[in-house]
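Re: that backbone. Tokens:
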């Protein structure tokens, strides 16, 4: 039976490949800007709702595309997930600390 962390890694891989190649551009191992937007709208909807800038996806695409090929590969995608996870963990710790002060 896989561990929680193994299931989380499998989910990351599965989600990435669910959207990569949807454009039928022959690039099934990368996300185009359109595919990245679709992924974020479906899988990170709460995050996108908190963003005030309508160009958020374009900015994220530019930041993620470290090799400048106009596509986001799995390694580049994982850096997005890591960054968001770090931010969420910081919120989690702050929330736990605030809850501890109330008790």
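Recovered sequence:
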């Amino acid at each position: 039976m896989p561990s929680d962390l193994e299931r989380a890694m499998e989910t990351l891989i599965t989600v990435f490949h669910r959207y990569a190649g949807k454009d039928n551009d022959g690039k099934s191992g990368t996300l185009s800007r359109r595919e990245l937007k679709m992924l974020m709208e479906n899988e990170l909807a709460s995050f996108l709702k908190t963003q005030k800038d309508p160009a958020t996806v374009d900015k994220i695409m530019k930041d993620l595309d470290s090799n400048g090929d106009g596509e986001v590969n799995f390694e580049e995608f994982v850096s997005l997930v890591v960054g968001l996870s770090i931010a969420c963990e910081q919120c989690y710790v702050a929330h736990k600390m605030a809850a501890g002060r109330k008790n």
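The mean pLDDT is 86. Residues 74-102 form the longest helix (29 residues).
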